[in-house]
């Protein structure tokens, strides 16, 4: 995840997440876009045209393309010091990336989930245990949903029990799923979107649960963590029904393709996390990382895997063209993978650290939030990239 989801007193292996970004959701979910099954024939995905990349605002995180509004929404967390700029939600022109409108957020915004049919955008206040709900037509707030309770830490100070990253929408059940992670026991917060209140909290998801993907037809939710665990939660009775220990240590993001019934994940392979685990667990042997994985969604078995760039985070499925998109934060690139064998077909270089993804499938345009590199000035605006496939 990112510096957003961490506190100064977080353990070192958790602080390693600060080199990541609040990964990918958007569109129907929080890190990834999941599209309904299509009965039409496959479309071709052309070669990427020259990339448009525009500086927008400081501390950009997730974004979401709205077909209803023909707009791109992106969350800016603002800053982290006493004089830092306010967090805001920005509406961009999806053709030019020009800022059309913006609104100040009451709390720092990171992850987003779009309900386009209801003209709602859910913005996760990842460090402040809540979700802000906005009307996408007016950018006016609808409400703030309280999630995690505060607890007293070992230092005697109050903090939220969990931090939040991705949000996934389940329109059929009027729910929003928000994995809350911690260094010990993560939990899934289930939000009723009609009442704008927490319906249930499901604990038992292990350390640092970050990945989440919905199989709406199968009435199940998949979750993954940075300790090689993959979970299945029933969306009918809201309980953990399956738990797997898999040969992939750092499953940062998940994506479920409703059209094919396939489950994908990015396994990031961050060295700092591996080194910390090896120090605390002498028998621990890291798995390769820096790869894209397909799991059997019914058994948790790895079907196949293929290399990505360095530090893969977000992934997004385009069922129509049968491709997957992956942001590689370490390599400064987006890789385009053939869904059949996961092989890389295109590598698109960006400046500096690609983070989250959103997609306009009708025009085959990919949007990417991009974090600044170490050479950038402190507090400098971060950018959004537009990649059109011809």
Automatic annotation (TrEMBL):
Superkingdom as given in the UniProt entry: Bacteria
Ranges in coiled-coil conformation: none
Entry keyword set: Signal
This protein's record includes keyword Signal: yes
Stretch forming the signal peptide: 1-23
Signal listed as a keyword: yes
InterPro entries: Haem_d1_sf, Host-pathogen_enzymatic-act, WD40/YVTN_repeat-like_dom_sf
Protein name (database record): YncE family protein
The organism of origin for this protein: Lampropedia aestuarii
């Amino acid at each position: 995840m990112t510096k957003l989801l961490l506190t100064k007193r977080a353990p070192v292996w958790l602080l390693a997440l600060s080199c990541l970004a609040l990964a990918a959701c958007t569109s129907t979910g929080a890190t990834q876009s999941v599209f309904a099954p299509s009965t039409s024939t496959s479309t071709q995905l052309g070669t990427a045209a020259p990339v448009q990349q525009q500086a927008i605002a400081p501390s950009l995180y997730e974004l979401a393309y709205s077909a209803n509004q023909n707009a791109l929404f992106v969350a800016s967390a603002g800053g982290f010091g006493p004089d830092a700029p306010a967090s805001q939600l920005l509406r961009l022109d999806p053709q030019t990336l020009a800022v059309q409108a913006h609104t100040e957020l009451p709390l720092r915004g990171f992850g987003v989930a779009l309900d386009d049919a209801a003209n709602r955008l859910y913005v996760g206040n990842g460090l402040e245990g809540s979700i802000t709900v906005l009307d996408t037509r007016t950018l006016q707030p609808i409400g703030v949903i309280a999630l995690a309770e505060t607890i007293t830490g070992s230092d005697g100070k109050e903090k939220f029990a969990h931090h939040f990253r991705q949000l996934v929408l389940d329109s059929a059940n009027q729910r929003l799923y928000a994995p809350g992670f911690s260094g010990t026991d993560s939990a899934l917060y289930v939000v009723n979107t009609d009442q704008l209140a927490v319906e249930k909290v499901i604990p038992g998801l292990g350390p640092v649960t970050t990945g989440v993907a919905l199989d709406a037809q199968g009435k199940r939710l998949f979750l993954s963590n940075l300790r090689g665990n993959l979970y299945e939660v029933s969306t009918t009775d809201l309980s953990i029904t399956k738990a797997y220990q898999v040969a992939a240590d750092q499953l940062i993001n998940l994506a479920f393709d409703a059209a094919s019934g396939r489950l994908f994940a990015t396994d990031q392979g961050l060295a700092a996390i591996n080194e910390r685990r090896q120090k605390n667990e002498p028998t621990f042997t890291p798995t390769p990382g820096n790869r894209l994985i397909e799991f059997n969604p019914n058994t948790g078995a790895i079907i196949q895997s293929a290399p990505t760039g360095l530090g893969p985070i977000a992934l997004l499925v385009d069922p129509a063209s049968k491709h997957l998109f992956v942001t590689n934060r370490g390599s400064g690139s987006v890789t385009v993978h053939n869904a059949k064998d996961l092989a890389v077909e295109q590598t698109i270089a960006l400046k500096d650290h690609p983070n989250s993804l959103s997609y306009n499938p009708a025009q085959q345009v990919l949007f990417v939030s991009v974090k600044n590199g170490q050479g950038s000035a402190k507090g400098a605006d971060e950018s959004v990239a537009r990649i059109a496939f011809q």
